[in-house]
Amino acid sequence: MSIWSLGAGQMTKDEQDRINLLMSLKPNKVDVFIEWYQWAWLALLLPPFAWIGSRIGVMRARILRANAELVNALGTIQDMATHDSLTGLHNRASMTDALEHAFNTRSWSAIEMMSPELLEDGYARVREFAQAKIAEAKGELPPEPTPAEKFDKDLRDSKDDAPKKDKTKKSGK
User: Fold this and answer.
1) What is the average pLDDT across 28-56?
2) For the chain, give me the number of helices (H) and strands (E)?
3) Which region holds residue 79: left if phi is over 0, alpha if psi is between -120 and 50, else beta?
4) Is the dihedral of CA 134, 140, 141, 146 positive or negative?
5) 0.85 exceeded by pTM
C-alpha cells in the first residue's frame, strides 16, 4: 500500500512533478553532527534577537508616548504665549507673529483684514509699520502724515525717550 493511496483523491500531474523534484534533490546521507550543530547555534542566537526586538519595541513605545506629551506641552505653551489668560483673546505677541507671517508670505488680504483690529486695539506703531510695509510692497509712496499725526508721533517718542522720574518722596528735614 503506497502513501498516495491513503489520500482523499488522486494527485495532479503538477503535484507529482513537484514531489519528484524534491526527491531528486534529496541527499544520499545526512550528517547528524552538522544538523545538531546548526540547531544549537539557532537555539543560542534566536532568544537574544527576540529580546533585542522586544527592547526596541518598548523603547519605541516610550518615545511615542514622550513625543505625544511634548506635542501637548508645546501646544499649551503656544496657547499661553499668544492668548490672554483672562479673556482668551489673542495678545500683542500673537498679532505681531501674524503680521510677520503675512509680510513674509506677502498675504496682503490678511494684513488689510488685520488693520481694523490694530486700529481698535491701539497698536499705533505696529499699525504704522504695517501700513508702511503695505505701501512699500505695492509700490506706493506712504501718505504724508498730517500735522496732528506728526504731533502724536513726536509726543509718543518723547514719552519713550524721557527719563523715568522717581516717584518716591524724600523728607529733607
Assistant:
1) 92
2) 6, 0
3) alpha
4) negative
5) no
